[in-house]
Amino acid sequence: MKPNRKPKAATVIDSLSLTPNMLRIVLQGDDFKQLQPSDLGGYIKLMFHPEGHTDIRQVPEGQRPIMRTYTISELNLDRGEISVDFVKHEIVSTEDHSVNTERGGYAIAWAMHASVGDNIFIGGPGSSQDIDFSADQCILIADMTAIPAVSAKITTLSEDAIGDVFVQLTSPQDMPNWTLPKGVKLHTVIGDDPEQLADAVTQVEIQNQDIALWCACEFTAMKTIRAHFTEKDLIQRDKSYFSSYWKQGVTEDGHKMIKREDAERGEG
What we know:
Elements: E1 8-19, E2 22-28, E3 43-48, E4 66-76, E5 81-87, H1 106-113, E6 119-126, E7 137-142, H2 147-154, E8 162-169, E9 183-190, H3 194-202, E10 211-218, H4 219-231, E11 240-246, H5 252-264
Helix pairs in contact: 3-4
């Protein structure tokens, strides 16, 4: 399903720290009452003026708003509310909170300073790619940026699912409150180095050939993980999803270009 391209007006109604390194912004908008339950876990586009504020009506003619992609973490149709979760980054610990197209940081800078009553325009939602989890072994992989998305996928696992969930956290206190099927083992990786996640995943025991794979994390880690399973000939097109949500040392727009090049090579 393609996202609804008409921007939706939204207002901040709450801001709270979920964990030491995860921030939640709750948004309300009349248009959100028209969403569907299936939009939980879908993606939206937060829209910014190039100068960093959210009044996109002031974007100069011929330019487009800066857009950043996030996942709907919670959805209340009756109240017209969605929750969006943000990973806190180093930018928020500095005195200079300015953003621009070269430096990036639009979304987290806004989220860290958002107050009740602030307004923002939202694009979407669009559906995240579904895969067939009816496999003999399910493997789900995420870092902190993908926790909202993988949380939605976990809820779709059958009670008799067998497999592994790998999640990289900045600290143990960042662990989500997940309920996993009895046959699914949780692997936590603590630290900020993307290679730690890739190393943990590539050591997983492969019990059979029928595997469903869902992976979203840093670009280099994703490529390492994807190559590992490709070399073992364990990639099934309808049962595999690999995506990078960011790239270490690169701005959001730089990552978009790298991700696009990766897809054009037929690797993403």
